[in-house]
# Entry
Amino acid sequence: QPKRKAAFGSVGRRIPYRILHVINQDGESLGTMHRAEALRLMDEHGLKLVLLRENVEPPVYRLMTGQQIHEEQLKRAEKKKASPKAGVVQKELSFSSAIAKNDLEIKTKQIAQWIEKKHHVKVTIRQAK
# Structure
């Protein structure tokens, strides 16, 4: 079975950095510490170290339970689904409910062309006075 790509950079004992900024499971900062100290804390509390941000100096890790890790993975999956995919163009069209028949036909042809080109189309109809 091919391994699935993890949602987090590193979880558990494989930590490539020597100095870490650690956050406890309640979200409170424990400060900057050496990797060995962070691993000792992890073992004492029965938690896992999860990389949150590695682009900062020092990288930020959080102590999490398995349940917290699972919930965070679900949140990230939902956020990824909700965000529009790269390369997908969204077109938006707005018109009044009192639109003339000919104008409506032209706009529906335009929408059909956009759908053929695999664009996402959002149509807004305003109520006429």
Summary: Residues 1-6 have pLDDT under 50 and may be disordered.
